[in-house]
Give the backbone structure.
Amino acid sequence: MKKLLALLIALTLALCALAPALAEEATEAAVEETVEAAAEDSAPEPSPIFKKLLEVPWYTWVVLAALVIAAALFIISGNRPRWNSNQLSLGAMCIAIALVL
């Protein structure tokens, strides 16, 4: 259960990193172009979401890969340190302050 939770957290972080690139919705013109391309029996254009994924800078993919690898290493290694309530609360406060800043 803990391994699944760690994996879900890693995937959530990856999705949060990609969210700005995927936030823009397809415009009506892009949808009409896709419909027209399909009607002409030509090769369909990739959807606007995939176009946005291709526009993501290379360093974002590197950071995402590093996060996924780090999460996998944490999942595989079974000797994780136990956190007490004081350490957990300090970590939560640091994350909250970093989010605000």
